[in-house]
């Protein structure tokens, strides 16, 4: 009698191979590779809090793309705390006339989101301190 193939192991193998290849593909595009669980969680938080309603990774929607935010702060260093404050409080005028409303996130969530956005810059320059 033939045994059914174990699809679970095949799926995990495929996922493991994808995760192994992905950092190289991302790095080839000029992004810093961040495989820290916190950064994966930050991307999930961005989805949960509706950030992708106004932002995308690569193209302008209502607000600037995350890639553009990261590039701006690769030229003009910003602290994680300052960007987290912008995420929490919202604002306008930096990226045009569209206003970003305040976000209902904790200080810790805002800092995690800020670290994630800054991790997308090609050559990270994050100012230390508050």
Q: What is the CATH class of the domain at 32-119?
A: Mainly Alpha
Name the overall outline.
Answer: globular
Supply Rg: 18 Å
Number of helices: 5
Beta-strand proportion: under 5%
Mean pLDDT: 76
At CATH level 3, the topology of the domain at 32-119 is Cytochrome Bc1 Complex, Chain D, domain 2
Structure description:
The chain has 130 residues and is mainly alpha-helical. It has a domain at 32-119: Cytochrome Bc1 Complex, Chain D, domain 2, CATH 1.10.760. The protein contains 5 helices and no strands. The termini are far apart. Mean pLDDT is 76; it is low at 4-18 and 24-28.
Describe what is shown at a glance:
This protein has helices at residues 7-28, 37-48, 66-75, 80-89, 107-119. The protein is an all-alpha fold.
Topology diagram in text:
Layout lengths: L6 H22 L8 H12 L17 H10 L4 H10 L17 H13 L11
Index terms:
globular, 130 residues, 5 helices, mainly alpha, Cytochrome Bc1 Complex, Chain D, domain 2
